[in-house]
Each structure stands twice: as structure tokens, then as C-alpha cells.
Amino acid sequence: MKNLTRKTLILTLAALFCFAAVSLAQKSPKDKFVFGPLNPIKLPQIEKVELANGLTLYLVEDHDYPTIDMRAMVRTGSVYEPADKIGLAAVCGQALRTGGTQTKTGDEIDKELETLAATVETGIGQTSGYIMISVLKEDVDHALAILADILMNPAFREEKIELAKIQQRTTISRRNDNIMPIAFREFTKLVYGKDSPYARSTEYSTIAAITRQDLVDFYKAYFYPNNTIMAVWGDFDSKAMAGKIKQTLGQWKPGKVVIPPLPKVDYAYKYTVNFISKPDVNQSNILIGHIGGLMDNPDYPALSVMNSILSFDRMFKKIRTDEGLAYAVWGDYEANYRHPGIFSSGAQTKSESTVYAIELMLKEMKRITEQEVTDQELSKAKDTYLNSYVFNFDSRAQIVNRLMTYAYFGYPLDFMEKVKAGVEKVTKADVLRVAKEYLKPDKVQILVVGKEADFDKPLKTFGEVNVIDITIPPPPQPPPQKK
Known about the structure:
Layout: H1 5-26, E1 47-50, E2 56-61, E3 67-74, H2 88-98, H3 106-116, E4 119-124, E5 129-136, H4 140-152, H5 158-173, H6 179-192, H7 204-208, H8 212-222, E6 228-234, H9 238-248, E7 272-277, E8 283-291, E9 293-294, H10 300-322, E10 326-333, E11 335-336, E12 342-350, H11 354-368, H12 375-388, H13 396-408, H14 415-425, H15 428-438, E13 445-450, E14 465-467
Parallel strand pairs: 2-6, 7-13, 7-14, 9-11
Antiparallel strand pairs: 1-2, 3-5, 3-6, 4-5, 8-12, 8-13, 10-12
Helix pairs in contact: 2-5, 2-8, 10-11, 10-12, 10-14, 10-15
């Protein structure tokens, strides 16, 4: 299942945009402010070191605080887990840390870290695994030894595996509680396909099928130094730190790693109308869209500007401000690093305005593909991006993690600067061109989660309705015990 963090961020930004728009409407300045160009942002000095075992290090000295942080990324992910054992990667990522090592239990490691005021976390997401550590510089040798022990000698103790599986089962049992996660989860399945590794969900049966040996095999397939990159930043001397890591993680033996190609996304544009019944709510959650794109698309800057105008200017203004229909309006032309994202526009509205809100959303989507945006809309969208650009550099950790992610996915380290330069050059003609090319208003997929009995019009106003069943399959029954 797709991680919802990005969607949560989008909604948070939408709420802030709403607040800002209302404030500006109440207190509009008489004179137009004129701002000069942004000051250049100075990126940290990065030293790249490659160990003999294939581990790639990125070292960034930062002497402002007496702390050291490390983050390693392993080329793996849930996209590589078997379809009948969905959840394997997540359980493995958790038990890698909690299951302890060959000489220490996870609880014993917890106590050691408490005395150091340090943290170590591990996890495996959709297309990468990670292990991260944060420690005071005087304790870095001790913490680094713990980190190396976890990476090189995991024990995957059964009781911690079972705990991770219990947590997964709890998540499954509660996944239909809230309307918004339901909408995003099922819309992702509409776009990628319900069986796609980018959209499929864990089930009781797939969690039950996971064994300790599965975790060991998954670990042995991907966790090698020559399949890992690591960033270290903080209060240290780069040469000395490289030596410390060589003494510890340098002992990690390389291995033969066969990384399958990422699953392909073969999307066929089509118009569909979909409904999920949620009779215990008095509002609808609406999503409209189709496949998105890749971040390395040369049109990505123009698409970002287009999305800002469509979602946070036009749809917001029409649906929320002018019509007063929605609690929230948002949009996202999502672009991923190595597989296409999802383009979607969304709204939360009272049940009685569901169909009307959809009609307005479709109208605005069509309008942006037919005529140029205004000078004011273009300027506002570009200024919004450029004025918020500085917040991408408000912490050293944020900068280093982003640069390492670029390196992991094969993007240039100055990718963000290239996008910024592209946004600055976007014209009205560019916005119209990418809208015409990438948006398909007549081939969108519509999803509504809500209480059908209270809709202002039947949802079949938009065409034949596909009703999606989100019933959670029950847990598999244990075999009967022999008497």
C-alpha cells in the first residue's frame, strides 16, 4: 500500500493555503510588492568515499552542534516481495532492528542506546531500505559498532517477528476506519491496478504466510555493502570518520546482488466512475485523475506550475471560496524518481454537494487545457514555488538526505536547482502546452467515498458506476488440532 505521508503533507499545505488566501482577501495591500531575486543557497561540502567492499560514503562536516547522524539506503523494497507474502519487506525492516543481533537482543540494544541518548531505526519502504542513527559525537564509536552489528549480524528473533506481524494485522483491521486513507488507497489501485506492487495491500493471509526464513532470505538477497550508500553528517573530521567506518562497516562482506528491474506501469487512459459506500459519514471524499509522470521529465517544472494553478488557485477559488462547497481542495501532479506517479485532484465536501463539486472539478480541469492562464495566475504560482524554495534547505539533515536520495536514484545532486531554474523560465504557453499534453479531462478516473443516499444527484450522472468492495478478507483459520 502506498505510503500516505505525501498525501498528508499535501492536505496540510492545502489547509495553510486556505488560511493564507482568506487572510490576503481580508487585508489586500494597496501597493504591489516587488521582490528581488533570491539569494544563492550555499550547499554543504560533500566528500565521497568508496570502501573496498563497495560501500559508498557521503561525508558532510557540520560543526554547529556536537552530534553525528548517519543514514544508509539499501537497494531493495516491497516491490520485490512475493505477491502471496505482501508485508514481508515491512516486517523484515522492523525485525532487522527489534530482532537484535547474534550477540545481543533488541531489548539489550535498546538499553545501550538509552545510556548513549542515541537512536537507531530501520525500515524498508516501497523502493528502498534504510537504517539511520543519531548520536552525540563522543559516543559515535559505540553507536557505530551497534549499527555495524545490526547490519552484519541480524538475528531476526521469532518473538519480535511475531510482534511486527501483530502490528501489521492491527493496521489491516483498522484500514477502513477513516475516509481519506480509504480514498487514496483505492484510487492508487485504480491507477496502477489492484495487483500492482505499487498499489497492493497487505492482508491477513499474506502476513500469516511470512516465516522467519522468508526474512532471512530477503535480507540475504539485498543487504550487502556493494548494494548500499551511506551519508554521514555532523561534528567530525571527514578523514577520521572514513577511517572509523572502514574499521567497522569495512568488515561487512560484499555479495552478489541481483536487483530485478522495477515493475513496469502500463497505464491505459480510460474514463471510469467508482464508488465506495461509507454510510457512517456526512461528507464525501472525491478524487479525480489518472497516471502522472517522472521527476526527470524536462516538462516537470512546467507541470508543477500548471498543477499549482489548477489545484490551489482555480479549483480552490471556485469550489471552496466562490461556491463554499468544500472543507478542503487539493491537487498533486505526482512525479516519482523511477516509476510514474499519479495525477489527482481532490476535495472533501458535504454529501449534498458531491456531484456538483465533481462537475466543477471536471470543468476546471478541462478549462486549463483549452486556454492560457493569466499573467497573474502564472506569477502567483511561480512566486509560491520560488518563495518556498528556501525551506528545502532549513536543516542539514534535510539537505543531506535529499542529496543521498538523488544519488540513490541516479539523479544529479543539483537536481533541485535545475527544477528551480526551470520553474523560473515557465511561460503561459508552457503551461497550456503541458496541460494539453498530460491532462486527459475526458479520460479521468473518478472515485467517491461517502454516503450515497445523501448525494445531490445520482453518481450515475457521470456514467456507469463501479462499486468497489473494501471488505477486509478474514484471517485464515488455523488447521484443526488432532485429537
